[in-house]
Each structure stands twice: as structure tokens, then as C-alpha cells.
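Continuing the series of single-chain predictions for the mutant panel. This is the parent chain; the variants come on the following pages.
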Amino acid sequence: MLTSILALSSFFAVVSAGCDNSCSGHGVCGQRGVCDCYDNWGLGLGHLSGDCSERICPYEFAWVDTPDSNGNFHKYAECANRGICNRDTAECECFPGYEGKGCQRTSCPNDCSGHGRCTYIEDLSYAAVANDFYYGYFSKDDAATFNYYAWDKMKTRGCVCDPEYGDVDCSKRMCQHGTDIMDQRDNMARAAKYQTQSIVFRADYEGVLGTNLLTNIASQTFALTFKSKLNETFTTLPIKFYASDSAFPEFILDVQTALQKLPNRVIDKVEVRGSRSTTQATINITFVGEHVQGPQNLLSVRAISCGDGCTPKLNGIELYPKTQNITSVQLSDFNSYECGRRGKCDYSTGLCTCFAGYTGLSCGTITALV
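Parent structure:
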């Protein structure tokens, strides 16, 4: 009996000692002396069980990898193939330009230099302002984005710069834009043309189009938003819509005054004209000021309600989306260049260093005749 007990004890000792390093305390010793490691533990690049002494780092879609036999790319890979796994901490030490758990996303250049937001590719908006793009018949209050389904969604990022800053890392101050004072029009005998933007107002409807007249939106308020060439966004004070023939000229004047009251004389002068019927009103805004020569970003109508704690405070205006359209109905004979193409921008200060014989914010004034 004693001999049998000693033999069994020796057998169990051999079995328990069969797994290397007792699986390092991170696994269970299985049959034939092979460790069954706990999650995220293994050994070597192949993550074999071994003695379960090393940590495994997070897996993410690989930025670059070799295809499998079916031609599939971007399979799951440790640290997304863009970092080295620290086996002691199970944290990825990402290569420059990559960050996050498993190095799954790009970092923005220079962290956008403190003058921008690092934004995922699917959240980057189209063009400059909302009016540059429409979803079907309906305009957007915010700049439009596209549905993005590529493999790098939630991975690739880029900088969206703050106003007055530009370049890929938002490191440069932007300079004033203006027309080239020496540029000539095709026909100098004709009066110069200025850009004109047209805004159409039509009341929302229930049922048959036209059953709601403009009188139904009388006294409702809205605002206009203007985005400058330096990406500065300015919104007017509330503008009250007037529908009657007697009050419509006052409405036209209110629109003109509101735009010219924007800060910093960003719009120094506009001319507003309009027409109306019982169901539709159209206003044409012509940019004739020196600060807004050349093509400008399209205005945006802020028609949604904006109550207490919101600015500007609006009760909103109910417009039929299909006809609430802002278009450029007349192009400008003037152009818009950085420093008027007659100077060099100092990107550290955002000021133009004009060439000899020119002066002004955008080098638009001639100081000497040749």
C-alpha cells in the first residue's frame, strides 16, 4: 500500500511539473505539459502558449499587411502593424503618426499646432459652408458631410483649422484676400460687375403647395451667417420677416443693415434689392464693398428656433426647404487672391508684405505710378 501511494505521488509530481515555469501563473497546465494560457497571455511573435510569460497587445485593423489567399487586406493585427508591443505592460508603443489603443488611429500633424481640431475623415465637412452642397432638396444648417464606409473609418484623421489659420497642421496665419489691382477686365468700357447672391423665401406648406402664403411667416425671425475668406464665421442680429407690400422695403433695409453691422467691417458694403408675390419673396444681395471684392462664400440662412440661452435669439421661420435656396446669380469681375497677388504673406503674423509700389491690408492700393 505504501509503495502504491509513493508511486501515485511521483506520478502527479511529474504531471504538475510538466508545464514550463508552471505557466508563470497566467495559465492552466493541460495535457502533455502544454499550458492553456489565460486571455492576452502567451509567448513570442506567434503568441504560442509556451510558459504564458508575455503579454499580448490589442489587435486592430492593420494599416498595411500582406493579403491572404483570398486577397483580403487590412486583417486584424497586433498594434495594427504600426507599433511595437511592450510585452511587460501589454501596451503598444506606436510609431510616429499613430496613436490610441492598438495604434488604431492616425495622429494629426503637430497636434494641429494648437489652432485646430483633429477630426476623423468621415466627419470632415464638404467645402466651405452649408450652401455649397445639398442633400436632395433639403439644405443643411451645418456644413454637409458624406456617409463614409471605407476601411479607414474611425482611423484616419486630419486637421480642421480655427479661423485665420491654415495649412495641413494649422500652423500658418492666413493673410487678407483681395482683388489684384493691376488685373484688367475683358471689356473696360463696361461697368464692373459685383457678385450677387439670391435668397428665395417661401412659406412651408401643408398639403398643396401654395396654400400657405407669406403672411403666415410674417414677424418670424431668422439670421444670416457669413463666412469670410479667413474662415471667420459671423452671424447677424435677428431679422424680422415682413410680408406686406408696405413693410417689404423695410425688410430689405433691415437685411442690408444687419449685414453691414457685422463685426470688424467684414462686410463693409452691400446693396440689397428684392421682389415678392403672395407666396414667395426673393432678395438679391450684391457685395460692392472693398473688403468683399471677388467671389465670396455663400451666405447661410439660420431659420431654426433659438430660444433662451441661445444667440442670436430667434423664434425661427418656417420655410419650404425645396425653395429655400441660396445661389450666386451674378459672378464678379473682381478676383480674390492672397495679398491681392501683389505681396507676400508673413505666415507668422498674418500680415501682407506688399511689393514695392503697393500698400493696404491686401496690397490693393497703388502708391507709385511707373
